[in-house]
Amino acid sequence: MRYVSTRGGVAPIAFQPAVLMGLADDGGLLIPESIPDVSDRLDDWRALDYPALAFEVMRLYATDVPDEGLRTLVEATYGASYGGPVAPTVQAGPLHVLELFHGPTLAFKDVALQFLGNLFSHILGRTGRRLNILCATSGDTGSAAIYGCRGRPGIDIFILHPHGRVSPIQERQMTTVLDENVHNIAIEGIFDDCQAIVKTLASDLEFKAAASLGAVNSINWARVLAQIVYYFRACFDTCAATGADRVRFCVPTGNFGDILAAWYALRMGLPIERLILATNENDILAGFFRTGRYERGALHRTLAPAMDIQVSSNFERYLYHRVGRDAGRLRTLMQEFARSGALAIDPGPDGVVDAEFVADSCTMDDCLDTIRRWHRDHGYLLDPHTAVGVAVAARRIAARQDAGSPIVCVGTAHPAKFPDAIRRATGRDPAPHPAIDALMDRPTRCAVLPNDPEAVRRAILSALA
Ligand SMILES: *Cc1c(COP(=O)(O)O)cnc(C)c1O
Questions:
Q1: pTM
Q2: Pick the CATH number of 89-104+222-426 from 3.60.20.30, 3.30.70.1660, 3.40.50.1100, 3.40.50.300
Q3: Residue 208 annotated as catalytic
């Protein structure tokens, strides 16, 4: 399998160089040249355990990693050492929840980032290269990436988060990791500023090469790849539990990474009837799937901060496919968006932007009410991100908009990670979690820098000197 850029300016490359490149050198995103159809293999895959399933899915895309090496990688990541079950699906009232929050930092990002850390070490081990990770986080990616890379020889990791705008728990999950190769930087700005700084530095190809910069945010294809696997697991498990032959997935969305993986799974032939995209008040993506117009608005701060994003870094991958894999057309649209803050495509003659998607958004009142109701009626405690998805899915069920196959809501974080929202919704504290309690009296380390790419560039160079 070879990888090309959405903007058409990178000669096709293999999987391992694509993983190291992160952002494509022409400013686009790397995508596989084709999507393998596995519909005739599904029956063989149903009974596989998680590492074996991950091996089967990943070997189709990571064709330059020998089978033996890949088997070792998925075993090391998803075997007994993972810490908890990787991707169990449980019933909660009329819905199913795919619980992806049993990894070390209690959010779904662990599933991919535990793998990516191991993958980086595997690739570097063979090339003797160094890698310096630069990543912006709205809260959860940072800690998951730090836990994936801490203490690894040959890797330094620089994580930018918006100063004072991540939750105290999220902040401590990052800043209490004192390994020498971990560098936390708080930027005086919002998440989009952090993401813009990363983009500026990673687009400076001279600096990128000199500082061996790599990426762990979901612009890195390996993350999307690792996430594809759990949609297979959840679809198989839900079909087995309910007797259904297909499912719908409802995915709370910020950077369009998680739902993009679901879309790839669908395109690979997994029987997914529909993807339900759920946003909070930052509803630029929901707007696109309703009208064809993608327009940046003002940022709303919500109780689901990992989804407080206006410009979704992975949307470009989807849009590339939506415009018929036409890199020239995509380039024009992205330039238009950079210039004016909006882009638009023609919905079909029936006004449907994409029949595989439906999209809706949820207010914070709605989110709190959903947490309260699910706790009261079904004894299930939702974190505020998962609750955004559940609110949107429950609304569809109530309106009988698409009665049919079971809905699996992606559970993106453990409720113990967001106690303030839980308290507001239910009047009670979530059950304590040992991983959270342990953070509170540990020492921390973090630098605060102005919202300026040059300040971050200097910090990286001096750390590496
Ligand atoms: C990152 C994150 C999301 C959004 O996922 P995307 O891949 O950015 O769409 C949702 N919920 C939680 C808890 C997250 O950490």
A1: 0.95
A2: 3.40.50.1100
A3: no
